[in-house]
Amino acid sequence: MARSPNRVLLLFRKDLLRRRRSPLGVLAMIAFPLVFAGMMALAFSGETALPRARLLLEDRDDGLVGGFVKQALAAEQIAEFIELVEVGEEGRQMLEDDEASALLRVPEDATSRLLAGEDVELELVRNPAQSILPEIAEQVAATMADVMSILTRLVRRQVEVLDLPDLTELESFRDLTDQDFATISVALRHTFTEAGSFVAAPPIAFEQVTLGEEKRDEDEDEDEDEDGSQTGLIFLFVLPGISVYALFLIGDQMMRDLLEEGRLRTLQRQLSAPVTAGQILAAKVLLTGVVAAAVLLILAAIAGFVARTPVDPAAFAALALALVLAVTGFAALIYGVARTDRQGATISALVYLVLAFGGGSFVPVDNMPAAMRAAAPFSPFYWGTRGFQDLVQNGAGLADVAGAVGVLGGLGLALLAAGSVLLKRKVLRGGAA
Amino acid sequence: MTDLEPPFAGFEELSASSAYSPFMIQVENLSKSYGDVRAVCGVSFEVAGGEIYGLLGPNGAGKTTTLSMMAGLLAPDEGRIRYDGVDLAERPLAVKATLGVVPQENALYEDLNAREHLRLWGGLYGLSGAELDAAVDRVLGEIGLGGRAKEPVKKYSGGMKRRLNLGMGLVHSPRIVLLDEPTTGIDPQARINVLDVVRGVAAGGAAVLYTTHYLEEAQQLCDRIAVIDHGAFLAEGTLAELQDMVGGEEVVTLAGDFDDVLVERLLGREGVRLLARESGRLVLATAGGGERRGAVELLSALFGEGVKMDSVSIEPPSLNSLFLKLTGRELRD
């Protein structure tokens, strides 16, 4: 006759099979820390920039005002929000084709009128098919108009001081003499020097602005890399704490099954077979440990993929084992004390939430008030969270996490011993309190 | 030495010990109380191999408590339970290995299929390999679930679950089978199947303890029957012996309003006994020497006096009339 199969393994295999057939609870506990950490990372990594508004500039003036407008809109600070495209008559059609957010027209005689002290009206045509981006373009144009008004006053003062010819009476700039141009150039140089604080770049720097745009593109690429890196860092910072919390919930699910089996009468049926209460309990403890370890490995693999930094395998194994022990011990104690599976679920939900919050699973311990910081080490979540953060972020070794391993392992063993005594009595009563 | 070592050292011991007693199940003075409530009071009986012994009683009579103690799930306050001469309290695991227990509730896992259930339970009782495969196939055939053995239990009908529940208690071919109301809540077809399986088990030499509150089942299936109520045996014997206990009396149940004078006059008649008197209901036993003469004479007298009655029923000697005779209540109540 063949040797009889190990009853603990038979019961363990049965529970594993049941979990495989109904994996939702376990999958949810795997997804929960990933989704939560991912959301936190995205929320705090600064990847929230709005798309740039595409602004068409139709410069009918082709003079000083048009130049000012171009320079102003090409300024680095504005270029963050506005993509400026110079167009001719086709601008209107482009707007109708939804190729831009707005069209800014500089009128034909803008420079002449400005220098004559008259008001110049820039025309902004919004794209009605868009809502937010034309608003951005309008705000930028309005700000630019304010700046130009200040410039105008500066320029006009220079014209008055230097006794320049009445520019408004000229048919064209070609009517100016060389002396006039020299005088105007000096005046404008003074003006732009004074206006330096209002205009981002001097006119002569037009080409540089173009180059600057290329440079800005490079900078943006770097920013994206930095943002990506920052997202990953936040993800890796948040993930350990939430993962530890999820592991405790996994332990809760698995151990709760013992009392559920009592309610479903399958526990009594097992006890009517030649199976001891200790074997039944051992199978559940094994299940809790194995499933928690499997979930931890999956989460660690994902964290490792994101971090792309080597983790000390010995340190990870020791910390994982200690954490699984703590998870199993806590679950055993809670369900050893609870009268029913539902009562146990309520108790564990409250206990784990408080311990997780106090232990820094959700909020970094360093950001807590002094009293809470002092109390944090009394939570197993603190040691689990800190241990895994050290492993993933700081490349900690076995010696570095020895404290966390000792606390979690010792606590887990003690709680498992106490919980097992209570649970065994409960199993012998058929799962009843 | 542990209580149970594969492949159940106790099993051979228990098997060998059966030579010392014709009874495979011996229950002596079994008692169990919950606080002030005595659930089982000094119950004793014996069951031989190949025999189906029925515990017949209404809900709450103490059948399940008795069976739970016999399955080792509940410790008795007093008394002994021996299987093949071995005390359950002394060698619980070795004894349990020889038992097949079928609980009243369907203790099944909704996500597992019939084959997985049977393999699990066969494994827990020490079967493995080809022996386990053969046992599982045999039981699947017996309970008629061979064609749906790979479907999860959650897709099964109530009758199919009942049959699987039964099969799990039989997969290891136990020599002693304890069945707690295995046909409760199933359709007649499934019931016939369950009863056939139980008969087959007994025919194979196993001692079967069968609890039920169905009179017909007990009458059809059981070789001997114990009538139990309020935790105590009221009567025990074969169906014929129990019917003899009724003493040829018929039970006459009268519905209507009867005053004390009339009842006194009826009880003054020869061979008439009062079994129960409730509001609007009078239950009498009549001894009439067969052919229901006692009942006929009683009714003739009532009609002669012009007594108005809403209904009349005459019960021939049966387990129900015995139960009525012993308790004043109908078993169906």
| Low-confidence spans of chain B | 1-11
What order do the strands of the largest sheet of chain B run in, or round the barrel if closed? 6-7-8-3-9-10
Measured by DSSP, the beta-strand proportion of chain B falls in 25-35%
Kindly report the greatest chain-chain contact and the residue count on each side: A-B, 26 and 33 residues
Largest sheet of chain A: 4 strands, mixed
Shape of chain B: elongated
Proportion of β residues of chain A?
A: 5-15%
Separation of the first and last Cα atoms of chain B: 51 Å
What is the mean pLDDT of chain A? 77
- Overall geometric form of chain A: elongated
Amount of helix of chain A:
55-70%
Structural class assignment of chain B: alpha/beta
How many strands appear in the DSSP assignment of chain B? 14
Uncertain ranges of chain A = 196-218
Number of helices of chain A: 16
Question: How many H/I helical runs of chain B?
Answer: 12
> What's the number of extended β-strand segments of chain A?
4
Find the structural class of chain A using helix and strand composition: mainly alpha
Describe the fold and architecture.
The complex is a heterodimer of chains A (433) and B (333). Chain A is mainly alpha-helical and 433 residues long. Helices cover 69% and strands 5% of the residues of chain A. Chain A has 16 helices and four strands. The radius of gyration of chain A is 36 Å and the shape is elongated. The relative contact order of chain A is 0.10. In chain B, strand 1 and strand 2 (37-48) form a beta hairpin. The radius of gyration of chain B is 23 Å and the shape is elongated. With 333 residues, chain B is α/β, with parallel strands linked by helices. Chain B has helices spanning 9-17, 63-70, 92-96, 114-124, 129-142, 158-168, 188-203, 215-221, 239-246, 260-267, 293-304, 319-327, and strands at 23-34, 37-48, 52-56, 78-83, 86-87, 99-102, 176-180, 207-212, 224-229, 232-237, 250-255, 272-278, 281-286, 311-315. In chain B, helix 4 (114-124) crosses helix 5 (129-142), helix 6 runs parallel beside helix 7 (188-203) and helix 9 (239-246) packs across helix 12. In chain B, the strands form three sheets. In chain B, strands 6-7-8-3-9-10 form a six-stranded mixed β-sheet, sandwiched between helices. At the A-B interface, helix 1 and helix 10 of A face helix 3 and helix 4 of B.
